Amino acid sequence: MTKEEYQRRIQDVKAKAHGRWPELLLHLGLDARMISKRACMPCPFCAKGTDRFQFTDKYGDGSYFCRKCGGGDGFKLAQQMTGMDFHTLLLAIESYLGMNPLAAQARSPRSSQDGLKDILRIWNEACAVTADDVVGRYLASRGLVLPAYPSALRFHPKLTYYSKDGNGRSRPVADYPAMVACLRDAEGNVFAIQRTYLPDGRKLSGADAKKSLGRGISGVPVQLYEPTEELAVSEGIEKSLAVHLATGKPTWAMLGAGNFEKLWIPDTVTRVSIYADNDADGDFTGQACAFALARRLKREEKEGMRREVRVFVPKFPGVDWSDIWLRRWQAEMERSQAAPQQVQCQPPRPRPRHAEPRATERKRAEMMELA
């Protein structure tokens, strides 16, 4: 990155942080009394006096003033109070604002390099997904049949699965086929992966069927398809493939609802569709995270970024978009198999009185549609 590009990057961050410095500084751990109450207090720079310092945020840039050593902006205040160098602070603010979440977390260079070697080894051992391999058959069993699968997905024939013992140490359990998805940085380099273990061609039972490897992945998606002026995002890989098949929209998989709000979206995208899970049978996590992203994107309109943002949620609790697509695909398969056998036209039989309740009928009807 050239000096001019770095300066433009700083200016972009300052523009997005404008008017949001109080929440940014609280997020970075500064004293709430200083930020929220605008209390006069000893200066953290000259460490003197009792009331000579005050956070003012007069122009929305996080400004402060000390009667002895002068003033500064939010960057200078955050550096002094957190001890971060400027670049580390820039990354942290970019991550919070959803601008560049790829490397905001601090990590030692050595551990990062060692982890990256394992990530690239696994990724390079894997091969492109085909209809005949374990991953292709697994996806087909979910109705996710494609003429060609995204290059962000690969098939690994024999990947070791680890589980922690009673002492918290990882121990090898078995080798399983796996679907491997890659996450790429701003330069397009693979820096993290997600592994979905598929013993006997089915997703491993239990909470650890999917495991991520890599750091700094918060808010980073698996970019299944290149976005145009439109982009659709969903929680998982299977759900995102289902949305793509049903709508034709380019999709990204967020690898969890908690990553929605930190997602960075290219400026070229003017229409964003967020496909959430219906977690009304739980704690509404799917809906809450989806609307948090939508809210952030709408707030960015104040900075001149005009986007059409829509959130889609299945009508019924416990239902996600891969469920809906699978029902639709199964129904289409049944119709296509039955069509050649319908030699004679049979009149429809009347619906018996003991048929399904209307709520069940509505749920089945919804399963046949996808926005």
Description of the molecule:
- The chain is of the alpha+beta class and 371 residues long.
- It folds into 3 domains: 3-97, DNA Primase, Chain A, CATH 3.90.580; 109-217, DNA primase DNAg catalytic core, N-terminal domain (Alpha-Beta Complex); 223-312.
- It has helices spanning 3-17, 21-27, 32-36, 74-82, 86-97, 109-125, 134-141, 237-247, 285-299, 321-338, 358-367, and strands at residues 53-55, 64-66, 70-72, 127-128, 153-164, 170-184, 190-197, 210-213, 222-223, 230-234, 251-253, 271-275, 308-312.
- The longest helix has 18 residues, at 321-338.
- The radius of gyration is 25 Å and the shape is elongated.
- Specify the biggest β-sheet: 5 strands, antiparallel
Q: Radius of gyration in whole Å, from Cα?
A: 25 Å
Question: What is the chain-wise order of helices and strands?
Answer: HHHEEEHHHEHEEEEEEHEEHEHH
Record the strand order, biggest sheet.
4-5-6-7-8
What CATH first level of the largest domain would be assigned?
Alpha Beta
* First and last CA, distance: 41 Å
Number of spatially distinct domains: 3
Per DSSP, the total helix count is: 11
| Helix fraction by DSSP (H/I, runs of at least 4) | 25-40%
CATH topology of the largest domain: DNA primase DNAg catalytic core, N-terminal domain
Q: Structural class, please?
A: alpha+beta
What is the beta-strand fraction? Answer: 15-25%
Number of strands: 13
CATH architectural group of the largest domain: Alpha-Beta Complex
Quick check: average pLDDT? 82
Shape: elongated
Low-confidence stretches: 101-111, 343-368
